[in-house]
Amino acid sequence: MSEPSAQVDQSKPSIARVYDYLLGGKDNYAADRAVGDYFINDLPGSVSIAFANRQALIRAVGEISAMGVRQFVDLGSGLPTADNVHQVAERYSADAHVVYVDNDPIVLAHGRALLATDAATTVIQADLRDPEGIRNHPEVQRLIDFEKPVAVIFSAILHHLNNDEGPDEVVRYWVDQVPSGSLFYISHFRSGHNEETRSAEEKLQATFGRGRWRNDEEILSLFGDLDVLAPGLVPCSLWRPSADAPDDTSRIGEESREISVWEELIAAALARKP
Q1: DSSP-based three-state secondary structure for 101
Q2: Which helix (H) or strand (E) is 174 found in, with range?
Q3: Which of 85, 148, 157, 218 is the most buried (most CB within 10 A)?
Q4: 229: DSSP letter
C-alpha cells in the first residue's frame, strides 16, 4: 500500500480539508481554499456553521463522558484540530478509547503522527458507507468492546450522504452493533428553506456531488427508535450551551434573536439506545 501522501490528488478539493481551512487549519491545498473562500467571501457568515458545529461536538463529548461512556467511534472525523474527541474524553477518564474514521488519506497521515504515542486512540481510513468494513477493522476490534456502551459520533457527516446512499441505514447498522446505554450524536445541515440554504447546498453539490440539507423531521428520522435526549434537535449553538451562556430553556424558541441565520443551518441531537 502506498503512503497516504502519495494518494492525494491536490487538484481536487476534499470535504475534510475545506472544513480544516474554514476552521483556520493549515492542512489544505489551493483547491480546498478556493472552495472555502467561496463560503467566506460569497456567503458571508456561513463560516459560523463550522465553528458552531465544532463547539457543539466538544460539548457533546464532555456530556457523553460525564454520562460514563468511555468508548468513541468518530465517523467522518476530519483533520485533527484543537480539542479533539480523545483529548476531551481523556479529561474525564484516562481509560477512554477513541477510533477516528475518515476516507481522506491526509486525515490518516496526520492522525497517525498525532497519535503515535497514544495506544488508546487510533485513526483508520475507511468509507462511512462501508460500516461492516469499519466494524471489522483490526484497530476497531482492538480498541472497542462492543459488549459495553459505545458513543457513535456522526458530526457533520451524514449530510454528505445523499438519500440514495442510505444515511438512515448507516446509523441503523451501528445501532444494531452496540448494547443498551450506547449513545449516538448527530449534527447535520438543517434546511432553513431560504436563499442561504439553497446557495450553500448548490455549491457543495456542484463541487463534491453531495451535501444534503434536511429538515428537522428528516434529521430526527435518522435516529430511528433511539431515545433522543433533551433538548432534542436544536441548532448547534443552542445544544447544551456552556455554563456561562444562557440555559437551554431560555434560548429555545428564541433562535431568531439569539443566533444568526447561518447558525440555524446546523443542528444537533444526542440519543441513547434503550
Answers
A1: strand
A2: helix 167-177
A3: 85
A4: P
Tens digit of each residue's pLDDT, the chain (274 residues): 334 444 677 888 988 888 888 888 888 899 999 999 998 898 888 889 999 999 999 999 999 999 999 999 999 998 877 789 999 999 999 999 999 999 988 888 877 877 777 899 999 999 999 999 999 999 999 999 999 999 999 999 999 999 999 999 999 999 999 999 999 999 999 998 888 888 888 888 888 888 888 999 999 999 999 999 999 999 999 999 973 443 333 333 334 346 888 899 999 999 999 9
Please enumerate in sequence order all residues whose Cβ is within 8 A of that of 147, keeping only pairs 6 or more positions apart, or say none.
Answer: 179
Going by C-alpha positions, the residue among 237, 191, 214, 178 that lies closest to residue 58 is: 237
Angle between helix axes 85-92 and 48-66 (nearest 10 degrees) is 30
What single-letter amino acid sits at 29? Y
In-domain check, residue 153: yes
80 located within any domain: yes
pTM of the model: 0.87
Q: Look up the CATH number of the domain holding residue 206.
A: 3.40.50.150
Grid coordinates representing 181?
Answer: 446505554
Full residue range of the structural domain in which residue 137 is found: 15-238+257-273
Domain count, the chain: 1
Does residue 162 lie within any of the structural domains? yes
CB atoms within 10 A of CB 84: 23
